[in-house]
Structure formats: C-alpha cells, structure tokens
Amino acid sequence: MSLVNKPAPLFTAGAVINGEEIVEDFSLEQYIGKKEVVLFFYPKDFTFVCPTEILAFQELLPEFEKRNVQVIGVSTDTEETHLAWLLTPKAEGGIEGVTYPLVADAAKTIAMNYGVLGGEYTFDEDTAQWSFEGAPIALRGTFLIDKAGNVRHQVINDFPLGRNIEDTLRMVDALQFTEKHGEVCPANWEEGKDSMKPTREGVADYLSNH
C-alpha cells in the first residue's frame, strides 16, 4: 500500500518526549501546517538494529531541526517500555540521550494505517476466531510528510535491513528544494547539485551537460 500523495493517517497516542516524559495524548496533527515530519517505524525496543537507527536519527537531529523538520519514532511497544529503554545507557544496549518523541502503538493501529505491520489479522467464520499471520510488529517504514499533511516519500525495509538516515535527510532537502524553486531533482541529487526544469527542454539541457 502506497501512501504517497495521500493524506498521512493522523493519530493520537501515548509517547515519550524529551527522552524522559510520558504523555498520553501525543498527536501528529499538532505539526500539520507548521513543519514537515519524518515519521519512522521500527520493530521493537531492546533489540539490535533498531538502536543503531534511532541513535543515527538523534545524531542528525540538529540537521533535521535546522530544516524545521520534526522527527518521530514509532513502534508497537508501550510508552513504559520506551521510557525504560530511553533510560538505559548506550553501553548497556539502551538509547539514552534520544530526545525526539517515541510513540507507543500498542494497539498496532498506527502501523496498520501506514501499511507497515509485519503481518495481518484473519477471521475464521467457521470457528469464529481471530488469528494473526506474520510478525505483530512494525517493519522499518519511513514516511516524509509535508506541511500540508500529505505523504511525499515512503520506503519500507524488512526487519534485518537497516535504513540510511542520511538519505532520509537528502529527501527532505529534495522536497524543500522542489517546493521552493519549482524544479525537480534528478537521480542522486544532493543539495548544491544541479536540478532540472520539468520540461523536455529542461531535461535535454541537463542531460547534455552531465
């Protein structure tokens, strides 16, 4: 399921903010009209690949903030588990020092709405029982949401495949560049490189010079 060019599913849920405070009514809607949002899902707290990604987002957080972008992490763990992990030192496998919000999707509805839940519920009418096939945790989904609340970029990785956080920042730069200048970003574009005018002449001119 692709959400690109569609409104981002809104949610209100428990979360840990500032690395230490549990709030019960954290809402995505608070950023609509004000900031772009990088919303990323990860499978589980207290695991192996996940802390490398979460800490990598924290390391680049000043760059996202400089671009007026809000970073938000989500997993299907509870906010209490998030807090316990946030209070655990890095040397002991924790993510102490992370300051952006971590949302608790214990009901799994946020992951389902974003199409990143690692399995699905099925209902057997003969036995009148629900079952779940797959993994009841989130895949590594990353969504770039513009100020209007629309998803402009998404990528979903399987559980063992860690994402590239620097490329997420590159996509933020690309989105902000195209919205400011009205030009498009060719393959492997980075801030400072040539863009293209979205016309046949613009493409021809770019290709002839590269």
From TrEMBL:
InterPro entries: AhpC/TSA (IPR000866), Peroxiredoxin (IPR050217), Peroxiredoxin_AhpC-typ (IPR024706), Peroxiredoxin_C (IPR019479), Thioredoxin-like_sf (IPR036249), Thioredoxin_domain (IPR013766). Residues 190-203 have a biased composition (Basic and acidic residues). CDD domains: PRX_Typ2cys. The keyword Cell inner membrane does not apply. Residues 190-210 are annotated as: Disordered. Residues 2-177 form the Thioredoxin domain. GO terms for molecular function: thioredoxin peroxidase activity. GO terms for biological process: cell redox homeostasis; cellular response to stress; hydrogen peroxide catabolic process; response to oxidative stress. GO terms for cellular component: cytosol. PROSITE patterns: THIOREDOXIN_2. It is found in: Cytoplasm. PANTHER family: THIOREDOXIN PEROXIDASE (PTHR10681), THIOREDOXIN-DEPENDENT PEROXIDE REDUCTASE, MITOCHONDRIAL (PTHR10681:SF128). This is Thioredoxin peroxidase. It comes from Flammeovirga agarivorans.
